[in-house]
Amino acid sequence: MSCGHINAQERVAIFYLRQMGWSFRAIGRRLERHHTTISREFRRNAPRYSNYWYGTAEAIAAHKRATPRHRRRAGHLPLARYVRRKLAEQGSMGSGLALCAQRKT
Questions:
Q1: Cβ–Cβ < 8 Å for 18, 45
Q2: Which comes out higher in pLDDT, residue 89 or 49?
Q3: Contact 44, 55 (CB under 8 A)
Q4: DSSP-derived secondary structure letter, 1
Q5: CB burial of residue 37 (10 Å; 0-12, 13-18, 19+)
């Protein structure tokens, strides 16, 4: 089985095979990928309110690869609020790290 990112040619194959009614398992066997990889590709890179299209999926995947993960997390407002609240409860980060060091000893 192949590892790594799905490339543009595989996205085209996924699109057409899915249009022909193939299952994720059958597509996975054809592309020598695990069926959950195909399923995740379909779920993650399809537009929200539309069907999977290989050109759009490639653009979405390229944008996700170009965006650092910490930037994506910073845009997640509930997570950002939670982290700020926890840091405020503990004081500065330095005192939080000191508490961690004390607990380990």
A1: no
A2: 89
A3: no
A4: -
A5: buried
> Is 47 or 38 the better-scoring residue by pLDDT?
38
Q: Residue 46 and residue 61: Cα distance in Å, rounded? A: 10
Long-range contacts of 29-37 (CB under 8 A, 24+ apart): 31/2, 32/1, 32/2, 33/1, 33/2, 33/6, 34/1, 37/6
What was the pLDDT predicted at 105?
A: 47
46 secondary structure, DSSP code: S
The H-assigned helical ranges of the chain are 8-19, 24-31, 35-45, 54-66, 69-74, 77-90, 93-104
Distance between CA atoms of 29 and 27, rounded to whole angstroms?
5
Q: Which residues contact 14 (CB under 8 A, 6 or more apart)?
A: 6, 27, 31, 38, 41, 42, 52, 54
Please give the model's pTM, rounded to 2 decimal places: 0.56
